Structures are given as C-alpha cells and as structure tokens.
Amino acid sequence: MSDTENPAVDTGAGTTDAAAPGTPLVGVALVVAVTVIVLWLGLLAWLAFHTDASEVAWSRLLIVLGSVEAVAFAAIGALFGTTVQRQRVADLAARTEAAESRAQANETAALNGHRLAAAVQASRAPGGSGPDTEQLSADRRTGQDPLLELANRLFPA
C-alpha cells in the first residue's frame, strides 16, 4: 500500500450509506428504492382515477402523497446518483493512476539527474584529477567546464 492510500476510504469504512460511494444500490437498498418508487407511482395513478373523493379525503391523500413523494425522490436520486457517481469515481481513478505514474517517472528522472550531477562533479572537479588523468573539459583555453558549471549550479553540493 502506498503512503497516499487511505484504507478507510478504499473500503468505505465510516460511511453510513447502504453502499459505498460509486457502487450501485444492491440488496435491501435496491428493493426499498424500487418499492418506494412503485408505491409513489401507484398512488399517483390511484389519485388520477379516483377524482370523486370529498375535499377532506383529497386533503389527507395529498398529505400522504407529499410524504411518499419526498421519499420517492430520494430513492430516484439514490438510483441515478450512484450511476453518475460511479462514472466520476472511475474517471478520478484513471486520472489518479496517470498522475501517480507521471510522478513516479518524474521522481526517477530527478534521481537520475542527481546521480548524473554527482558523477559529473566527481569526475570533473578541479583538484580531484591527478597528473595522469585526462581533462575532459570542452573549453581547454579557459580551464572552465560548462557541464561542471551547470551541474554545480543546478545541484549545489
């Protein structure tokens, strides 16, 4: 497991939802959501065909309809929300994986750059070469090595 992974987030621990974020409704949650939606649609159909009720009965039925309607909209939101959330989670997982691979490549490149700079500094440092060592300087007239200067400037010792 990497340092950036959180097991509580990965397993959905600590959530009170019936399903973890990004997963479809299953089991009891799915049955309850579908039942509430069917109940709401059935109540709407019953009200549409029974218009001969008294004013008092209609008032009471509308109160019941409002309660069932609120729960039905929550169930519809849960059904459609998990579909949308699942796509978002998949997109974010792909973006995270790409970012982690870029970060790893950049980390490797930086490490290789440090190693190269250390090798250049060790092999071309003045005073470190003996009389039998060949000078690798590109500019022999001034005695300055542009590669050594760049390594020293980018990676000061």
List the helices and strands and how they pair.
Elements: H1 7-11, H2 27-49, H3 55-124, H4 146-154
Helix pairs in contact: 2-3, 3-4
Structure commentary:
This protein is mainly alpha-helical and 157 residues long. It contains four helices and no strands. Helix 2 packs antiparallel against helix 3. The model is unreliable at 1-19 (pLDDT under 50).
What would you say about this model in short?
The chain is an all-alpha fold and 157 residues long.
Descriptive tags:
157 residues, mainly alpha, 4 helices, 68% helix, rod-shaped
Mean pLDDT rating: 75
Number of helices in the DSSP assignment: 4
Flag low-confidence runs.
1-19
Helix content: 55-70%
Secondary-structure element order, as H and E? HHHH
Please provide the count of β strands: 0
> What Rg, in angstroms, do the CA atoms define?
35 Å
- How many angstroms separate the termini? 34 Å
The class by helix and strand makeup works out as mainly alpha
The dominant shape is rod-shaped
What share of residues are in beta strands? under 5%
Main beta sheet, described? none
